[in-house]
Structure formats: structure tokens, C-alpha cells
Specification:
Layout (H helix, E strand, L loop, with lengths): L4 H27 L4 H20 L3 H18 L7 H23 L7 H8 L16 H14 L5 H5 L8 H10 L9 H55 L3 H52 L1 E3 L1 H4 L1 H12 L3 E7 L4 E3 H22 L3 H6 L5 E11 L2 E8 L6 H10 L5 H6 L2 H5 L24 H9 L3 E7 L3 E9 L5 E8 L2 E6 L3 E7 L5 E2 L4 E5 L2 E7 H4 L10 H9 L1 E8 L2 E6 L2 E8 L14 E6 L5 E5 L1 H8 L8 H10 L2 E5 L3 H13 L3 E5 L2 H10 L4 E4 L8 H9 L9 E5 L4 H10 L3 E4 L5 H16 L1
Parallel strand pairs: 2-4, 9-18, 13-15, 19-20, 19-21, 21-22, 22-23
Antiparallel strand pairs: 1-3, 4-5, 5-7, 6-7, 8-9, 8-16, 10-14, 11-12, 12-13, 14-15, 17-18
Length: about 775
């Protein structure tokens, strides 16, 4: 192990870079053995690795790299041909170098026998493996290696490092001092992560400052109203002084003069505060955005950093299975957050293993199917807006739906009855279920007993989703979609039971208002039609274990019986409609990880602090989808609308005390809250002072009759849809016609009054009005 921590860090970076380039060079030469430029580049990389290892005392890497360098040099000189056996030996040597370098950095023993590796590089048979070389042969191998080294030309390592001495002069030092600069520095990724988190907090803080601007604007509006009222009072005072002169009035006059002076001072201060806050907020927004963007760009790495490491894996696995596979990489230059690369390495490796083991046919099978004997796997990455997509496609056999169904039944993932109700997309998604596999036996290539549920779990951990598409006999495509920004999250904030909740917007397909009659309810579920497709509807409160309540305020009651806010979530081909109390806003947040208190709680992926200081839980859409399939609705939309409707306020306008008392009792027994008025004029004043769901009025009344009241109501836009029922003794067709012309929704005569019919008419009119 390298003793100096700083040198260990430098050696890790340098050796990883050299090893990656050497492996890429070998893979390229395996397909293009005549590429002399790549051969020379490979030789330089091995030589650089050897030199770095020598300087830091990693002798075993130096020795193996020297032997690999000799092999490549003989190929360059035409003394040796690059055969599959030679490549296998070089790969074995490179694997050993990787492990020894890891050992030198971490101190963790990797159990590499340098003698066995050198024996392979010196020309051991390709069917010999390290495990097959017995320990007792180590001495003979060492002797053979010593003889081999003795036959090699002597290399003076020190001579390679020593150059002609240069006697420095003053001019020389001056020139070096003037030209010296450090172009690059190494920064630990953990420090960048911390900086990026703080920069994200700064962006969110800036949005909170914007809320301060709104509050200052509200103060300015209050100041303007106050100034206008003071001006009106001053005019009234001046008129009063013309008719009444006294010392008391002078005192009031002096007070108003002082108030006006203070108001001017307050207005000046408020305007200055607003202007300064606006300027500072604008500057902060620019700086915070540039800072966050700059730090984020430092974390960006090209897809090729992980894509290229799969080339070796695909080559080895295909060779192991006797298949021919060509890996095509697209979009390797696209840069994404380093955490995405780190977290996606294992899922992509698993998908590639599955593709080679399950999806790709043997060469003989492909020829029988009139396909090229060499299969193609395409690994593609690209960015679209705020999302990053990784696609893994192959031209193999595709998914076997029947095999998926049988495996799902065999492994008790679902029953045949449940399968019969599933769509094709839902059946395809079963391959991501825990424990799913179409294989009876565990293979070393794909899974080793671990299914694609692990892949889905890793993707979900990054707040992404994975979907699969296939064409039988033509191939299969796995598409992984992730949020490109991991520092801040754009969320939709909603309210349930007066508490805020957030959900990442990348899962939100649509926000809409749903009317009660649009929801088709059964005993255990609710459904709406969205884009001509049925979508399951659930109360978010039900999923969160909260009571589903009818709103208590009058305005909210009217709103609840008319439309309910709804969010359409989408993951792959699956959709879910969530009903909430209120939709608030979209906002960028810094997602705080779960605390110990929330650890393990379903549906919750973290929390954040809103601009108003409230703690807002961020929901996990994946968990919501899973839970929605198991949750039974506590109350239907129709039932809730009826409950809300029963609590609504009714304005009763009736001049007859006995009839008014009787009508009020009927309405209150039906659950309505009743406000009584003694005539049309009193009724109109009370209508403007409160909010009502409907108006029930007599026709013949003093001051303002029922027809005049109805006409007056309809003249105001805010009351154009308010239900008005006239209940009167006037039963002629002429009176009914006048009632309709005035704008009444229903005309009921007292001679034919029936309580049940009256209440049904009232409910129907309010429901139609609110829909």
C-alpha cells in the first residue's frame, strides 16, 4: 500500500485513467488489429502506467505493465500477431493490474499471484487458468521468468529518468516564475456535492425573497388605501371648518397634518425598501443561478465514462456463451451528473447481462431466423429538457409474454384471474416484480438469483422510472428516464387536510378539475376517462392514511360540489389520478433526506421547508402507485359532494312569519344552514353580505317582491348561475312565465308543495349549477 495519502489519491486517479484507456485500446484493436496509431497510443498508455507505478513503488504493476509493453512492442515490430490468445493474455494482465492498483490504494489484499500472471503473459496455454496452476510449480515458473528476463535487453530505468543537467540562471528562474500556472486541480466529489447542495439552498432562498417582495407590495397597497382614506377625511374636515370654527378642530387639523407627513415618510421608506429588495433579489437570482450552474457543470461527466466499461463485459460474456455480439454506443459525449453514472452502472450491467443471456439467440438460431449471426446491442444516452434517458436495445428474441404469465403464476406474483384483467403493458411490467424470473435455474450470467426488481429499485432511488418495449422476434428496449438535476427538485405543491405535500413534476402528466359526475364509482374503486382511457381515481388522503373530509368553508363547499382538483400521475404506461383538496404551485426545492423519524415510511421520499416556513413532505410516486392497487376508497366522490352539499347555506326570503318558520325548519332538517330575510330588499342585502348555495323566495312581498329580487340577482355577473327557486301561491301560467323571464330556475306553487319534491329540486339545481 502506498504510504502517503496524497500520493495514493493521485495514483488512484492516474491508474484508473490509464487502465480505462488501455482496455479501450485493446477492445478497439480486437476489431481493428491493423490500426497502427491505436497500437502506438496503447503502447504509450502502458508505458505511462509503468512509469507512474515505478515512481510510487508499486513494483508488481510495473513488472506486469513492462511485460505487456514487451508484447505490444513485438506486435508493433511485426514479430508477433495479435491473436485471440494474445488478447486473452493481455486482458488477464490488465485485470491483475487493476486489482494490484486497487490493493496499492486501499491496502485491501486482492490475492493476486504475480508469478501466475507473468506465466500467462510469457505464453502459457490459453486453457490454463490461474486456478489450475499449482502452487508447487511456482518455483519453476519463477525460474522460467528469470530466464525470460535475462534474455531481454537491459533497460536502465534510471537512465530513462535522468536528463542532462541544466545550470539555472537568474533569467531562467524569472521565465519559469512568469510562465508558471496550475491549469487543473483535483477536488473531492464529496466537497462538490456539499457545495451543490448549498447552491441549491441559495436558489430556494432566492424564491423566498421573491415572496418578501409580494409582502412589501401588499404593504404598499395598504399604504395607498390609508393615504386615500386620510385624504377623504381631510376634505370632510375642511368642509366642517367652513361651518364651525373652534380650537378643538384646530387640534384635529394639526393631527391630520402630522398623519399626512408620516404617511409621506412611510411611503418613501416603503418604496425605497421595495426598490432595494427588488435589486438585491435580482442580483441574488443571477449569482445563485450562475453559482449553481457552475458547480453543477463541475460534476458533469460524459456517458462514455460508464458506457465504455461495458464493452469488455459484453465481449467476455458473449464469448463465454458462444455468441457474437457487437456493442454500439451512442450519445457517449452527453454529460450528466456523476451520481447518475455511479448509480446506473450496476443496473445497466444487469440489463446487459440479461440481454446476452435471455435476449440474444445463438449464432445458429439467428441464421435459421435469417438474422445476422452477429447480434447488436445498442447503448444510447441523451438528454431532453430536464430529463436524461438511457436506452438499452437489442435485436434478439424480445419478451415472451406467455412465459412471463406462467412465471408470474408459478412464483405466486399474481393469479391467472389477475392476469386476465391486466393490459399487455402491465404484464410486461411484471418482469420488474420482486423474485420474478423465467428461468427455473439460477445462472451465473444474468441475475445469479437477483431479478430486475433490483434494477427498478436503483432507478426509483434516483426518482426515475424504467419501462420496457419489445417486438416478438425483433428485439427488446429498456428505457430509463431520470431527472438531470439532483441538487434541486421541481415539485408540484398541493394541500390535503390543510397540510402541504409535494410531488416531483416529472411524474405529473396533467392537472385538471374533475366534476363529480365524471367519476364512475363501484364498491371498491373509482374511475375517470382521460384521453379516452380509463384511469383509476384515489383520494390522496386515503393513500396517506388521512380522513377524507368535506370542506368546511362556504366557498370550498361550493367548489367541492362543482369540481375537485385532480393530478394525473404517469410512470411508464401506467396512470393514476389523485384527488386533492387544493393545488398550490410549482416550485424548485432542495430535497432533504429522510430523518430517522421518517426512515422506512412508505410514500415519503424526503421533506423540504417552504417559503412560509412550513415543513412539506415530498411524496414518492412509485410507492403511491403500489399502494393505490391495495387501497379501498373510504368515500366516493358523489358521497362527498352530497355531504358538502348538505352543509351549504340557503337564503330564505319570505315575509310571512309562519311560512318562513315552516320552510326554515324543512331546510334545516335536511341539513342546510338557513339565513332568513323578511322581504326582497332585506334578502338582497344579506345575499351580498355572505355566500349562499341557493335562494328560495316568495313572490308577493313588500319593498321588493320575488320577481324584482330575481331580476336584481341576475343583473350581477357573480350571481348568474346561482339557483333561485320561487315558492308562491300565484299559480297561473302568466305568473310562471314572468318568473322564468325574471331568471328563476324553478317555480313551485304552495298549493302543490311537497317536501320531498321540493328538496330533490333544490339538490338537483345546486348540483347542476356546481358542475
Amino acid at each position: 500500500m502506498i504510504e502517503n495519502e496524497k500520493y495514493r489519491h493521485l495514483y488512484k486517479i492516474a491508474s484508473d485513467d490509464h487502465i480505462q484507456k488501455i482496455e479501450a485500446g485493446l477492445l478497439h484493436l480486437e476489431k481493428h488489429p491493423q490500426d497502427q496509431a491505436k497500437l502506438e497510443q496503447l503502447l504509450r498508455e502502458i508505458h505511462s502506467l509503468k512509469g507512474d507505478s515505478r515512481m510510487l513503488g508499486v513494483d508488481d504493476v510495473e513488472t506486469i505493465a513492462h511485460q505487456m509493453e514487451e508484447i505490444i512492442a513485438t506486435v508493433q515490430q511485426g514479430e508477433r500477431v495479435l491473436t485471440p490468445q494474445v488478447f486473452d493474455c493481455l486482458y488477464l494482465g490488465l485485470d491483475a493490474v487493476r486489482k494490484i492498483a486497487h490493493e496499492a490504494v486501499t491496502g485491501e489484499s486482492m490475492g493476486i499471484s504475480i508469478f501466475h500472471v507473468l506465466a500467462q503473459l510469457m505464453g502459457a496455454q490459453s486453457n490454463d487458468s490461474w486456478a489450475e496452476i499449482e502452487e508447487e510449480s511456482a518455483e519453476s515458473e519463477l525460474a522460467a521468468f528469470a530466464q525470460f528476463i535475462a534474455e531481454q535487453p537491459v533497460v536502465n530505468y534510471e537512465a530513462e529518468l535522468v536528463q542532462e543537467p541544466v545550470i539555472p540562471t537568474t533569467d531562467t528562474f524569472t521565465q519559469v516564475s512568469d510562465n508558471y500556472q496550475i491549469d487543473t486541480i483535483h477536488v473531492e466529489s464529496q466537497k462538490l456535492d456539499q457545495l451543490l447542495t448549498q447552491a441549491g439552498e441559495l436558489v430556494v432562498t432566492n424564491s423566498q425573497f421573491a415572496d418578501w417582495l409580494t409582502e412589501i407590495d401588499q404593504l404598499l397597497m395598504l399604504w395607498k388605501i390609508w393615504k386615500r382614506e386620510a385624504f377623504v377625511s381631510r376634505l370632510a374636515l375642511n368642509q366642517l371648518r367652513r361651518h364651525w370654527h373652534s380650537n378643538e378642530l384646530q387640534l384635529i387639523q394639526d393631527f391630520y397634518n402630522l398623519v399626512e407627513t408620516r404617511l409621506e415618510q412611510l411611503g418613501t421608506s416603503l418604496n425605497q425598501l421595495r426598490n432595494r429588495t427588488f435589486d438585491d433579489t435580482t442580483k441574488l437570482e443571477i449569482v445563485s443561478n450562475e453559482l449553481a450552474s457552475g458547480i453543477y457543470s463541475l460534476r458533469l461527466l460524459p456517458f462514455s465514462d460508464i458506457f465504455n466499461i461495458f464493452a469488455r463485459t459484453v465481449r467476455d460474456l458473449a464469448k463465454q456463451q458462444g455468441k457474437e455480439v457487437n456493442l454500439v454506443i451512442e450519445g457517449g459525449e452527453t454529460k450528466v451528473d456523476k451520481r447518475i453514472l455511479e448509480q446506473m452502472k450496476d443496473p445497466l450491467m444487469h440489463i446487459l447481462r440479461n440481454a446476452i443471456d435471455h435476449g440474444i439467440e445463438t449464432c445458429q438460431e439467428r441464421r435459421l431466423l435469417a438474422k445476422s449471426s452477429t447480434a447488436t446491442i445498442c447503448l444510447r444516452g441523451y438528454q431532453s429538457g430536464s430529463t436524461v434517458t438511457i436506452e438499452v436495445s437489442d435485436d434478439g428474441r424480445g419478451l415472451d409474454v406467455e412465459a412471463i404469465k406462467q412465471a408470474a403464476i408459478r412464483r405466486d406474483i399474481c393469479s391467472s384471474e389477475e392476469l386476465a384483467r391486466m393490459s399487455t403493458a402491465e404484464i410486461q411490467a411484471l418482469i420488474f416484480a420482486p423474485g420474478f424470473s423465467t428461468r427455473e435455474d439460477v445462472t451465473e450470467i444474468s441475475g445469479r438469483g437477483v431479478g430486475l426488481d433490483v434494477v427498478r429499485a436503483n432507478v426509483e432511488r434516483l426518482k426515475g422510472n424504467i419501462e420496457v418495449e419489445f417486438t416478438p422476434g425483433k428485439g427488446c428496449l429498456f428505457r430509463i428516464t431520470l431527472n438531470s438535476s439532483l441538487a434541486t427538485t421541481n415539485v408540484l405543491i398541493m394541500e390535503v387536510n390543510q397540510n402541504p405535500y409535494a410531488i416531483p413534476v416529472e411524474f405529473v402528466e396533467k392537472m385538471l378539475l374533475v366534476a363529480p359526475q365524471e367519476v364512475f364509482a363501484t364498491e371498491t374503486s373509482q374511475t375517470i376517462l382521460f384521453e379516452d382511457q380509463p384511469v383509476s381515481v384515489v383520494w390522496l388522503a386515503d393513500l396517506l392514511g388521512l380522513p377524507v373530509k368535506a370542506p368546511t368553508s362556504t366557498k370550498a363547499l361550493l367548489f367541492a360540489t362543482k369540481t375537485i382538483p385532480c393530478i394525473i400521475l404517469r410512470i411508464g404506461s401506467e396512470r393514476l389520478a389523485l384527488l386533492v383538496d387544493t393545488l398550490l404551485e410549482k416550485q424548485d426545492i432542495v430535497l432533504k433526506p429522510q430523518s430517522q423519524l421518517l426512515a422506512g415510511m412508505p410514500n415519503i421520499s424526503g421533506a423540504t421547508i417552504l417559503g412560509n416556513g412550513k415543513v412539506c413532505l415530498v411524496l414518492n410516486p412509485i410507492d403511491l402507485f403500489k399502494l393505490a392497487k391495495k387501497t379501498t376508497i373510504s368515500i366516493t366522490v358523489k358521497e362527498l359532494a352530497e355531504q358538502a352539499q348538505l352543509r351549504q347555506k340557503i337564503l330564505l326570503v319570505e315575509d310571512s312569519i309562519p311560512i318562513r318558520t315552516q320552510m326554515q325548519q324543512i331546510l334545516e332538517d335536511a341539513g342546510y344552514e338557513v339565513t332568513a330575510a323578511e322581504d326582497g330588499e332585506d334578502g338582497f342585502n344579506k345575499l351580498q353580505a355572505d355566500t349562499f348555495a341557493a335562494v328560495i323566495s316568495d313572490v308577493q312581498m313588500p319593498n321588493l317582491d320575488g320577481l324584482g329580487l330575481t331580476t336584481k340577482i341576475r343583473q350581477l355577473p357573480e350571481y348568474k348561475d346561482l339557483p333561485v327557486i320561487l315558492v308562491t301561491t300565484l299559480a297561473s301560467e302568466e305568473h310562471k312565465r314572468k318568473g322564468v323571464e325574471a331568471g328563476a330556475n324553478a317555480y313551485i306553487t304552495k298549493s302543490n308543495f311537497k317536501q320531498g319534491a321540493f328538496l330533490d329540486t333544490l339538490r338537483r339545481l345546486m348540483l347542476n349549477d356546481n358542475i
